[in-house]
Amino acid sequence: MPSAVQQDPGPARMRRSLGVKDGVAIAASSTAATTSIGIGMGTLAAYTGRQTPALLLLAFLPILGIALSYARLNRTEPNCGSGYTWVGRSIGPWPGFLTGWVVLVGNVIFMAYTGAVTGSVVLQFLNKMGLHSVWGLQLDPASTGISTAVGLVALVIVTVTAITGVRAATRLQMWLLVFEYTVLLLFCGYALFTGDQPFSLSWLNPFEISSPQALAQGMVLAVFFYWGWDAAFSVNEETRSATDAARGGLIALVTMLGLFLIGALAFQRVMSTGELIHNGPQALTFLGSQLAPEPWASLPLAALMCSAFASLQSSVIPTARGTLAMARDRTLGPVWQRVHPRYGSPAVGTLLIMALAALLAVLAVGIPKLNEMILTAVNSIGLTVALYYGLTALACAVRFRHSLRDGAVRALRDVVVPAVSALTLFGLGSYLVWDYATMSDHFEASPDNGWFMLLLPALFILLGLATAAWAKWVRRAPYFRTGRGTDAESVSLPMDANAAPLPTPSEG
Fold this sequence. Notes:
Blueprint: E1 5-6, H1 20-31, H2 33-48, H3 52-76, H4 83-90, H5 93-128, E2 133-134, E3 137-138, H6 144-163, H7 166-194, H8 212-226, H9 242-270, H10 273-279, H11 283-291, H12 299-328, H13 347-366, H14 368-399, H15 408-439, H16 450-473, H17 479-482, E4 495-496
Helix pairs in contact: 1-7, 1-9, 1-12, 2-8, 2-9, 2-10, 2-12, 3-8, 3-9, 3-14, 3-15, 4-5, 4-14, 5-6, 5-12, 5-13, 5-14, 5-16, 6-12, 6-13, 7-9, 7-12, 8-14, 8-15, 11-12, 12-13, 13-14, 14-15, 14-16, 15-16
């Protein structure tokens, strides 16, 4: 953290050194296909049974519409604030601020949860390697305290790599992705051909899902599965062109669809629905044990560990850049916009995000109810993701509504597809809100209580509105007068007074 901060005569710029491959690495790591497949397929199966592949394919359609909306908006106004900036300008500053706010809060909660999950996976892997204790301390993956402690070490490591340069971080993520996808495809591909569960075309038929409630809940969970591809748009100021950011996000999204379908089909070829639900978070390691002897059976667990690390790191990167955009507009405090003079990254914001996630994770160890709240929040993040994705797609339809006069193709691309995608997500979210509100007849701090599941997203939004009010009437942020985000090239960012100036892009 800089010891002294001043306004430098020459603006501190974030380095434009990233290309399409880097965007793919960030977006794919943030989506964390291996983690979603490895620990989440059982949850989807609990709602949609053997129609999980159909659900994943169905959920891809509105998400693709959202991704095309992001790409269209990004060509017009590249900004690391992405949805926060675009929604603020097209719809209004209050929904724009909420878009940025739910991304920030959702990612911090997700990091607190994923840190402990990462620690547990690391401990499972060490146990597989024969290491069960260190200095008399039992390395028990089922221990919340030990798992959280290991997860905090992982969180510090990924934060350091995120601060020392997003370019170095994406290189690490690319190698992790190559390893985990190779393992995933080998095992899932083998399972497709050798599984003893008969394949049925009904697996691809969404009309066989048991109920509208199961469909809605499954769709929102599937949206959460795909969540993260938009991280490619958070590094606009560090990407050589806006087109590169859009290509990175879209390539990652299509890749996720392929991996999710292969994973879902492979699991169902090896496991019955009951077995899949029973194995839950251990489904990928169970698959490995069914298909190969040790030590090869441990490869899926190693891939899961790599995916958890990459997901943790890629959550830090876009969140810090989102808060940077908000701080430039004075909707958040100036501390969030300090750019490291050497590495060109929002270092202080990255550290603060790590500290918030770590604090939440540590508190959850000592407060069992808080741990339940975090679990419920993770389950509820799908609602907030649907909200901000829908708002961004709606912003695209509103901003380019003039395309309705420019021919059918442009109208379909710029207005109709974004509007339909937004309305689909809003409809799913509204149905799920109604379902949560009516599923329980009393309030209880429990992950399966509908009122409690609604309380947390409501608190996120209310806290966001209070923060927005402070920014509008106390900080007097110009964003709330114009709805326009600050152009990254028009401001000088605070940097260390004693540091050498950043190199130009040609020197970097």
